[in-house]
Design a protein that fits this description.
The chain is of the alpha+beta class. It is built from 8 helices and 9 strands.
Length: about 350
């Protein structure tokens, strides 16, 4: 990578020669202005207001415009004579926790590269000191004709510097917050928390510029003479009064569905709608649905076929009753005979009758 500035880091009495390299790059697609009638380029030309003649770059200087419109010329020599200790030095003024730097102050980012072999040792010392302290360095430096504020931190094994806006360059957010008192219910906060948990974290490397890709496809299509299809416009709902609870619930379900989480459609809804019920598949491989109905029919048919067996049981029951009746008749006959013998034989007959009863009962 090409360096854009050479200087040194002033770390107390330690001086670290470094080169400044851009850490970011702009991938925006740039357009040219053309004349619609013939497609010719429209160019900006630097013209003097007094004589209306075009002026070349070598003839252009700097000047400060006073309140009354007077131009005060300032040359590069004038600026070079100013006492600017940070003209070629990144001067560290303090070490502070990173959370003390307001993100609103963040500006351009740079990598600081050790300039030469002798710079490797002090460069590594500063890098490891920043790592161990879990702090960042606040520094002052001069770049492109002005003094700036910067923050040094460690990225992998490299010291990076973020340009910072001066504190007085940050505007106070007056009149930006919503007017009036707005009350947020706990239920709304709970749903907002659920949405935040569902969205979870993201791999920053997976994010990309969809608009730039669409512009590139548009340019390629027009260059090849293809017909460009207009994109479908989605209803963003701007200006509409929405049900915040319903919007949060739908957002949670949509987030779960996009991440492929199970049970995304089974969320309880505040309007009392029934959730979708799906049958649970059996793992044993047994048939369900129509097969169950067929099984029930087969069981009914089998029960009907077993009815004759019940008739046979009735027959056996009647046979048993007949056998029992025969036994009763035999008992009666034996009793009558024993009575006759008792009448004829007196006391002895009584004993025989008793024994006969025992045998009959046995």
């Amino acid at each position: 990578m090409r360096s854009i500035w050479n200087g040194a880091i002033s770390f107390g009495l330690v001086s670290i020669p470094i080169k400044l390299v851009n850490a970011t790059e702009n991938h925006s697609i740039h357009f040219r202005q053309i004349h619609l009638a013939d497609g010719g380029r429209i160019r900006y030309r630097k013209v003097c207001e007094l004589d209306e003649e075009e002026v070349q770059g070598g003839e252009i200087g700097k000047a400060y415009e006073d309140a009354d419109g007077t131009m005060i010329p300032i040359t590069d020599e004038d600026l070079a004579q100013l006492p600017l200790p940070t003209a070629k030095t990144i001067e560290i003024v303090a070490f502070v926790p990173a959370d003390q730097i307001d993100p609103l102050q963040m500006d351009a980012a740079y990598y600081l590269s050790a300039n030469g072999v002798p710079a490797a040792k002090p460069y590594t010392l500063l890098r490891e000191a920043l790592k161990r302290s879990n702090k960042v360095a606040v520094a002052k430096y001069a770049l492109r004709g002005r003094e700036r504020l910067g923050m040094l931190r460690v990225v992998d094994d490299v010291i990076a510097m973020h340009g910072l806006l001066w504190p007085d360059e940050i505007r106070a957010p007056e009149g930006v917050a919503p007017d009036g008192d707005v009350t947020v219910r706990d239920a709304e906060l709970d749903l907002a928390d659920a949405l935040m948990d569902t969205l979870g974290e993201v791999d920053m490397d997976s994010l990309h510029d969809d608009y730039r890709e669409a512009v590139e496809e548009l340019i390629a299509a027009k260059a090849s003479g293809e017909t460009v299809r207009p994109a479908e416009s989605g209803d963003t709902g701007g200006g509409k009064v929405i049900d915040l609870i319903a919007a949060l619930e739908n957002s949670v379900q949509a987030a779960k569905k996009s991440r492929g989480e199970e049970g995304a459609g089974a969320e309880d809804k505040s309007d009392g709608e029934m959730a979708d019920v799906h049958p649970i598949k059996k793992t044993s491989g047994k048939p369900t649905g129509k097969s169950s109905a067929q099984t029930t029919k087969k069981s009914t048919t089998a029960a009907k076929k077993s009815t004759p067996k019940t008739t046979g049981a009735k027959k056996s029951t009647s046979t048993t009753k007949k056998a029992t009746g025969s036994r009763s008749t035999a008992k009666k006959t034996t009793t009558k005979t024993a009575a006759k013998k008792q009448t004829s034989s007196g006391g002895t007959g009584t004993k025989k009758t008793a024994s006969s009863r025992k045998r009959a009962s046995a």
